[in-house]
Amino acid sequence: MRVVFSGGGTGGHLYPGLAIARALVRERPDVVPHFVGAQRGVEHRVLPSQGFAYTLLDVHPLYRSKPWQNWRTVRGIVSGWRGVSALAREERPAIVVGTGGYASAIALAWAARNHVPLVQHVGDAFPGLAARFFAKYSRECYLGFSDAQKHMPPAGHYVVTGNPIDPPPRVRPDRASLLAQWRFDASTRVLLVFGGSQGSLALNEAVAGWVRGGIPAAWSVIWGTGRASYSRFAALESPRVRVAEYLSPIADAYGVADLALVRGGTMGLAELCAWSVPMVIVPLPTAAADHQTWNAKSLEAAGAAIHLPQRELSAARLSDTISGLVRAPERLAALGQAAGRRARPDAAADIARRIAALIPAAG
Questions:
Q1: From its phi and psi, is residue 215 left (phi > 0), alpha (psi between -120 and 50) or beta?
Q2: 121 DSSP β-pair partners
Q3: pLDDT 10s digit of each residue in the chain, 363 long?
Q4: Class of the 175-341 domain?
Q5: Which residues pair with 98 in a beta bridge?
């Protein structure tokens, strides 16, 4: 029984779909997921290694700042519709699952037009255009942030599930053993820094200035620079600073982190909440509809994070922020507790159960 997962462009839209698909197969072994995404998105690199069938379409986003390029968008709509229609002729999907981004729109539109049930996962606190438009056609919309509902059409059926992640192990790894793996002192506190899979030059430059100025004696740093920037910052490795181009498995870093400096992408934030790690969030200012700022503000309002706009980020501001938390350990602890309260580590399984319950009605 084919279930089409449509979404991508970025990892924040693709990885939730993968987590839901794996959980759905565990829930319903008769389900065969098939991913539909964009040729130009991260899915063309990620999907070949995931074990699921997939179709990549030549679709494009709306070019808001370069409207003369929107002929590509129109062409992509036509060719994408033909691609989804051809896929459906092979086997009509039982249900279509949208996970966001421009890559989801064609399959969702095809499902609505052809009376195929559809559901959506909406990861950000401020939903994207496709999520808002197709909400009225969706049997259910699964929200990563409860705040998202106030931006959605009132007639939709919304369920706050959190964002699907690979949850922490039921028995957490021993912190002392993990610190030894990182070659850190057993009594140190750890700042974890990462800017998503590609890294963040703005974060990296601020951290570099802070490290050069001397980090607090009680702290150490695990720093994922991203592959493109690693050679620029690798020389800052020291007994209390570990520099890596990519943190994998990142659970080994989550397990020792006392604080994280991160962007505002949904997956990283959800994982940090699941590990009860407090956050300083520096949203990517160029993110579509500034959705990372909405995510940061939502977690700050919940007491789980400090929102630090990129325009205010500097080595000095970072030093002041961390020094303030060093002087107020009770605030650091409160941030971590609030992050833990926002955690939904079983989101993928919960969403999969709801989708499985809808499949029989789809025939």
A1: beta
A2: 142
A3: 999 999 988 888 999 999 999 999 999 999 999 999 988 888 988 999 999 999 999 877 666 677 777 677 677 677 788 889 999 999 999 999 999 888 789 999 999 999 999 999 999 999 998 999 999 999 999 999 999 999 999 989 999 999 999 889 989 899 999 999 999 999 999 999 999 767 899 999 999 999 999 999 889 999 999 988 999 999 999 999 999 999 988 999 999 999 999 999 999 999 999 999 999 999 999 888 899 999 999 999 999 999 999 999 999 999 999 999 988 999 999 999 999 999 999 999 999 999 999 997 444
A4: alpha beta
A5: 6, 120
Please return the burial class of 129, using the count of CB atoms within 10 Å of its CB with bins 0-12, 13-18 and 19+.
Answer: middle
Return residue ranges of the chain for CATH 3.40.50.2000.
2-166+346-362, 175-341
List C-alpha distances in Å: 320 to 95, 216, 227, 303. Answer: 51, 11, 28, 19
Token digits of residue 28: 């319903």
CA pair distance 231, 87, nearest whole angstrom: 44
Handedness of CA 70, 72, 73, 75 (dihedral sign): positive
**What fold characterizes domain 2-166+346-362?**
Rossmann fold (3.40.50)
CA distance 78 to 209: 49
How many other C-beta atoms lie within 10 A of the C-beta of residue 230?
Answer: 17
DSSP state at residue 217: T
Written as six digits, the tokens of 325 are 């938390």
Q: Using CA atoms, how far apart are residues 307 and 71, in angstroms rounded to an integer?
A: 38
Number of C-alpha atoms within 13 angstroms, CB side, residue 183? 7
Helix (H, G, I), strand (E, B) or coil at 339: helix
